[in-house]
Amino acid sequence: MKIAVAGTGYVGLVTAVCLAEKGNAVTCVDIDQGKIDLLSNGFSPIYEPQLEDLLKKNRESLTFVSHYQAAYMNADIIIIAVGTPERKDGSANLQYINEVAKQIAQTIEKDCVVVIKSTVPIGTNDKIEKLINENLRNAVSVDVVSNPEFLAQGSAVKDTLEASRIVLGVESKNAERAMKEMYKNFNIPYVVTDRHSAEMIKYAANDFLALKLSYINEIANLCEIVGANIEDVAKGMGMDPRIGDKFLQAGIGYGGSCFPKDTKALHWLANYNDYEIKTIKATIEVNENQKIKLIKKARKYFSSLDGLNIAVLGLTFKPGTDDLREAPSLTNIPIMLEDGANVKVWDPVGMDNFKKVFSHAVTYSQSIEEALTDADLCFIFTEWNQIKTLELEKYALLMKNPIIIDGRNCYSVEAAEAAGLTYESIGRKTVTTAITLKSN
Ligand code: NAD
Prior knowledge:
Number of helices: 19
Bound molecules: nicotinamide-adenine-dinucleotide
Number of domains: 3
Low-confidence stretches: none
Structural class: alpha/beta
């Protein structure tokens, strides 16, 4: 089977590498020549555990090109995995996917299956099929299949190789057969349905996870007010198999390239169809407020952040990825800078991407210790292992004032207390110790 993948981002590249690992030859297309050059030399342009090793291992089965013609011309299956970012009004921007569809139509010389892996609003597969058919240069037939992706960044390779299900939205037996042939070595259960339902499964699943997070964050906020402990509450809830213990970690809100845009896109789609999906509307609102919760907590200790040395630990939207899209750090650091703070940041893999946005506005630290030295205040935005396993005494030793405002509940309250820290976290009691505040 000749397989082509359009887009070598988190989804496209991981899909291609995993398909190669399972015995397929795959040609990957990307308009970003820099990515193609790196990939052709065996390097991954993104950080994902296991990805670069598998890329190197399967080098013989993978080809990377920036010109799509040769890749699409005789392909049996073309997988579209380009971005569908958010537009200003919250709807999904389909310009990249439309572009690829036109390129396919202009190029293919034999019947093929076009697979839409990108997350797209319900009805998009139908529109893409129409667009391709209207622009076909040769007399060939095309089946369009919805095959949404459920991988999570930080565990994308594992999630693909050991996925819980493969959703296939198909309108023909031929398409279903081709997809099952492509996935034949994966040994993963299928959910076979129509295209609209497959498109809806993706949004409904993602938005449910976002909703679960906003729910636990609201419960955490109430825990702080009424004096309960969110960790114990979540544990007690999660042991109920009807609820499950996943996605019950309270924090400063979800980020990343999917939950924020996918909640807004479904909300937009509902509104567009004269329906208000209230649970998702609330999910979005709760998340927006949650993102700036740490700054509000900091203002309890300092009326202004002007002139303070602030250490920021963790920049990426979650551990295991270098992706900064919609990360809470991007919302909070500009507030600190506007207030006049001196911000020193540390992240094990996210600093290069951060430099592309913030350049010299902050100081980049090579170690956690360097970031903490002489800090008046420390914010934790990402629960990297290096942060979770740091000896807490270091905060007291290195900082001017050991005030830690932790958005990811990295430490137990008791340990923070024992280490003499002033420690704010989410949904748990605040630990205050005798601290000398800088007068400002
Ligand atoms: P990404 O931004 O990381 O990658 C998209 C890639 O497509 C880029 O490298 C870009 O250069 C390339 N591209 C754009 N136009 C192209 C064209 N005409 N031909 C070839 N390449 C082109 O995006 P991503 O995070 O991989 O997401 C892709 C889709 O998958 C989105 O719809 C997203 O919602 C969905 N998705 C993402 C995740 C995730 O965790 N990132 C998970 C599930 C689903």
